[in-house]
Amino acid sequence: MGILKWMLPLCLVLAACKASSNYDPDFEPAPEQVKADWPMTKQRCSQCHTLDRVFLQMELQNDKGDVEWMVEDMASRRGSKIKSDEVPRIVNVLDWHRTR
Ligand code: HEC
Fold it and tell me: How many domains does the chain have?
């Protein structure tokens, strides 16, 4: 029972993820938590603009504080679907990508 509740959405998310992004190969070596939160990050951060923009900007960030500031800024935009408990998870994903 418990496991099924987790497995189905996870499979759907992984399948969708595999099918749709150019950036996924980058995340192959990522820690489990980063991999797990990547589809959510992708969904949240492509709501208002493309992900390419996020990644371009990411290369320019100097430290994790900059990434945090940016994600918080985006989370506070009108209509943003980013929840406050997702902010640190998104920051971890983007910060991992930045320092890979
Ligand atoms: C509610 C809409 C919305 C969401 C969700 C959103 N953004 Fe944005 N983002 C914008 C808008 C609008 C702009 C362009 C205007 C601006 O830069 O102020 C922008 C611009 C950016 C830029 C360029 C900033 C610059 O200085 O050029 C980056 C990087 C960025 N977003 C990253 C992200 C990340 C990372 C996420 C996910 C955590 C995200 N965005 C989610 C609305 C959003």
Answer: 1
92 and 71 Cβ atoms separated by less than 8 Å: no
CA of residue 14 to ligand 1 center, whole Å: 25
The rounded distance, in Å, linking the Cα atoms of 43 and 64 is 21
Quick one: which atom of ligand 1 is closest to the CA of 67? 35
Is 2's C-beta closer than 6 angstroms to any atom of ligand 1? no
Name residues whose C-beta falls within 8 Å of residue 41's C-beta, 6 or more positions apart in sequence.
89, 90, 93, 94
Surface-to-core class of residue 24, CB atoms within 10 Å of its CB (0-12 exposed, 13-18 middle, 19+ buried): middle
pTM: 0.81
pLDDT tens by residue, the chain, 100 residues: 677 777 767 766 666 655 554 457 888 899 999 999 999 999 999 999 999 999 988 888 889 999 999 999 999 999 999 999 999 999 999 999 998 8
